[in-house]
Design a protein that fits this description.
Length: 316
Amino acid sequence: MRDTRESRLLLVLLVAIAFALITVDIRAGEESPVDGARQAAAAVFGPVEKGVATAVDPVANAIGAVRDSGERHNRISVLERENAALKAKLGSDDRNRSRILELDGMLKRAGAGQYGIKGAEVIAIGAAQGFSWTVTIDAGTKDGIQRDMTVLNGDGLVGRVTTVGPDTATVLLASDPDFTVGTRLEKTGELGFATGQGDRPLSVQMLNGKAKVSPGDRLVTFGSSANKPFVPGVPLGEVVRVDPSGGGLTRTVHVRPFVGFSRLDIVGVVVVPPREDPRDAVLPPKPEPPKPIPTVTVTVTPSPSVSGRPADEEER
């Protein structure tokens, strides 16, 4: 295309239309008028993304063993047997050993919370259908994935499913500024709402402005009605800073998420919620503070001579 006045006007018009669609999509949220187009794009491009990921990943089929397990994940003993089978399939090189540890952690979290999960791999970062903090996973409606399902990994809450195609699904990460989840403070049970802040810690509004919160305190998900989009008890993060209350009705704390969103690989979509709230059972035990090392003081006493005087005096 030649660089003419008409072509420049056309370019400006297309850019203006694109920004208008982005604005409408963000403001409308889940009721976005372009959601249908987003789902259609997922149906068209999802199989391509999944096919490319499978072609370059020698362990893609092994993850399917987790995906196809369904409600059997409700029992820890079954999880452990399937985990052992996956370890055998994944091989022994360094990368696969790391992924085995990820699977092991995820299955143990699912067992502790009694979540029935379907495993999936992250095959793309930033969905082509939007402009949010998202990832694409290689599981879709054919695998029983539905919109508004909780997504976790071995560290804690990853996000929630927003768009589902036949072979893939889009997951909105907990770090996204449009992401909000109800929280519950460990032990005290104080409630709040966490909001994503990109690459910064999550911002949590505690409902009780006088709640006692300290750095190091941990939070889990409170859960949603009918367990969608969030099941209860999923580890969220650790408090790193507490803003002064200022006498307000709420109080803001800043929480470092347990999940490293820049290094996501294997995740689990909760397809069967727990029968009851696991409360703090899914949180790992807190590490014990290091024990002080005892110091030993040795005092040297001169040995007496036969005359009763110190030996060094007799030599004189």
